[in-house]
User: What shape does this take?
Amino acid sequence: MANLKDVARLAGVSVATASQALNGKYVNEKTREKVMKIAGELKYYPNKSGRTLITGKATTIMLVVINSQGHADIVRESTFFYHILQGVIEVAEKHDHSFLFDVRNWEDDDLTDYFTRLVNDRSTDGLIIIPQYIRPYDFIDAIGDFPVVFLNACNSRDRLNTVYIDHESGSRMMAEHIIEKGYRDIAIIHGPEDHFDGLQRKRSFLSVMESAGLKIPEKRQVYGDYTIESGYRGMQELLNCCSPDAVFCANDYMAAGAMRCVKELGMTIPSDIAIAGYDNVELSQAVFPTLTTIDGRMHELGEALADNLFKVMEAGHSTLNVRLVPRLVSRGSV
Assistant: This one.
């Protein structure tokens, strides 16, 4: 098996020069081409572990999702994170970096120690953190100036590099769309009360309704956990107490459960009741009628998270904030 010394010898350069050429460092272009050609012929590829020892860089980035015990594990029970991961991976590959993924819980006793280890063991060059729930970020001091980007940070925004999905705008678009379609007896199936994205969607939707003179009473507001089953139960609860002509669900999975409940009762969508969702996952086009929803631009979100992280890694610690605005997708369910 060929090694770096073999490549350097056949190229007529030093081992250091061969290493620089293969790792994208500055060398004469003619020399780079020669080294790359010989490496290809020998089927030699730089060893990332060795590169870490030489450069102090792991050429790896990591995404950590923080769940909360007692809530549905939407990382495993939905495809929500799949497109985010794909966007992150594509950007990482462009920068010749590997990608790691992990899921932790806010209730883990060693959460701060976990981030301390990640920062100090040189296994990764930067972190993307998706905190999800509204909790104090006690682990922030452990991260220090290590390159990190948050998705929708709810704490210390002025100190953190953040990619922010404007869910308030997304819910506003949906509320205005439902009103424009002529619906007036509107109900909601919210996400968990302590989920930051869900709270943004709730506040914005209710605000638009109140401003339009359509304030939604408490009995027409129920809560789910972003799963299909919770949407089913939420719709049952609503239909037991009232007769809404439209229901906004805080994600597409709950909307799918609500649609199943309505159909089992022999009702027609949207003639008897309209149903809208949020996120625009694949499920939104698999149900019938297809689901009116808000496109959270998740693949672009993953790209933005990784792009932001590499900018931080290259420039050193800084505060970069990127805002993405969701899009309304009008389909047959409303």
